[in-house]
Known about the structure:
By secondary structure, the protein is α+β, with helices and mostly antiparallel strands. Helices cover 29% and strands 29% of the residues. This is GCN5-related N-acetyltransferase.
Amino acid sequence: MHTDPVFYRFLGNKSFSHEDVWRRLLSQLGHWAMLGYGSWAIEEKATGHYLGSVGFFDFQRDLTPSLSGTPEAGWVLTPRVHGRGYASQALQAALDWADAHLRAERITCLIDPDNVASLRLAGKFGFQEFARTTYQEGPIVLLERPR
């Protein structure tokens, strides 16, 4: 479990309990079983250390406009590897997989407006802002990548 508070800044600003981690794991497996897509772990080849995850989700979020029914891209990496290209490599691999396996007309994502690095990464891969709204009492940017 991560103890670095920076890791959680854009994930609700709190660490996850054992129960939270278990629920997230079950959610990930459920995505694959029910929707045919989900997430992958990002591992450092040289050390085998877990660095984060990347993938696609449909969390049925309570927001307007709705993202439900579209694969929602998401990624998170431990801060100690930020700026080293891991996120770009992981997102490229995930989008290559999506292009080969998903029939969706678009892929969406939501990003905290203060998360400049993720907004930059999304833009690098063709995601374009289509709305700004509120999610869980905070501002959020909605982006889409037409296919």
